Amino acid sequence: MDIGKDKTIKGIFWTSIETFGGKIITFIIGIVIARILEPKDYGIIGMAYFFISIAQIFLVSGFITALLQKKEVSEIDYSTVFIFQVFFSILLYLFFFIISVPISNFYNEKTLVPIIRVLSLNIVFNSFIIVQNTYLTKEMKFKSLAKINLIAISIGSTSGLLCAIYGFGVWALVLQSTINSLSRSILLWSATKFRFKLNFSKNSFLLLYKYAFKLFLSSFLKTTFDNIYYIIIGKIYAAKELGYYTKARQLQQFVVNNVFTIISKSTFPYFSSLQDDKEKLKEVYVKSLLTLSYILFPLMTFFIIISDNLITILLTEKWFPASTFFKLLCLSGMIIPLNSITYNILNAKGLVNKTLILTIIEKLLVVISVLLTYNYTIINLLTGYFAAVLATFIVSIYFVSKYIKINFFSTILKVLKLAISNLFVGLIVLTSVIYLDINSKLIYIFVVAILFFPIIFIVTKFFKLIPVNFKSIITKQLKFKK
User: Fold this and answer.
1) What is the pLDDT of residues 360-405, one digit of tens each?
2) How far apart are CA 199 and CA 205, in angstroms?
3) Radius of gyration of the chain from its Cα atoms, rounded to whole angstroms
4) Packing angle of the helix pair 112-119, 75-107 (nearest 10 deg)
5) Residue 87: CB partners within 8 Å, gap ≥ 6?
6) CA-closest candidate to residue 340, choices 416, 253, 425
7) Domain boundary assignment for the chain
8) Rounded to two decimals, what is the model's pTM?
9) pLDDT value at 476 more than 70
10) What are the tens digits of pLDDT across the range 283-313?
11) Are 421 and 465 spatial neighbours (Cβ–Cβ below 8 Å)?
12) Looking at the predicted structure, is the pLDDT value of residue 169 above 80?
């Protein structure tokens, strides 16, 4: 078997183990914790989440992708990035330590001061392992990464659960995150033999910075505006309402990220290797886009239909208001990964300027939607967000059609056919279960599942909408150049 092909298959396998295993552990323990804690606790964490997410972008974006994209990375490159990341993370921690007071005043929530100061420790912990993690990814050592991350997640999640059981309240969520980061740092350094001399090269820094800065700006804008609803909802509405939004978003991301992360982590290195093979790159992009659509559209439609019953079964009745937010986020969840595939392929081609432009356009659309809806309800806010995401998708396909030379209208039409088929089948199934008037929540979910998935498969197969199996794409077409 071709070495590159073998590494790709193993990479997908271990990335799948890491992604699904880690998410399942976090999801199950997270459900138990949510049943113990109150929505307000998640709202308080949501208030801090925006600022911590922005801080993480300074560390995990730009230089990491620059190292992954660079074909030959020297020891001095790794050392330079490591020194910069650690030094900068300490500055960031001191910054957030100071501004934790103004942030708590902004939300009128005094408990945020110690919470932000403890959560900010994650920035420092993570800075020590970014280069180690990047090296293992670059070398496609996904097995080692999977084992380390799964152990760290297990330690952090178990700690959070024990804290929730013993009445720590919101601090159970804080300690869960912090212990997870600390455990991961210790395990990566203990288990990884890769070491380097601490040397800082100005030339290496400037060379990587040239690529990393524009990519950082793109990620900074994306993360800022993706999480801006935490600020808006936290400031205008009660912490409890933000708690509903926070949990609804976590549930949506559990489904969406599990599917997309596997494809993103496993295909970005290969996309980079196909920079000069335009025809192959086009083919892989379109098939990846359609396969994501074929997987995500039915999943999101299914969760929209069962949302009310699912939320109350998993989280109890106190979380029922989160159901409406979850439905709207599922609509956006159909499109967001498709946009991310576009960012991946543009970055792999080295078109970071175009990625930045596309990100600016996307965020302008989000700003417009926020300005038009923030004076109304959270439902209006999330509906506006979906409209902005959908508009971004159309623009992103245009960008790819221009720079990668795919057929714009043909690609849009293929995705639209999948969307319409899911809407059609979803309405039929929803009408059917309403007519049946099922009282049991579990039976309701079971009936929806046995009706929806077979019917959508039959419909898409009849109209020849099923794309090439993604496993076939990976194993037959993604071959690394020697």
Assistant:
1) 898 899 999 999 998 899 999 999 999 999 999 999 999 888 888 8
2) 11
3) 22
4) 170
5) none
6) 253
7) 21-226, 247-482
8) 0.84
9) no
10) 778 888 888 899 899 999 999 999 999 999 9
11) yes
12) yes
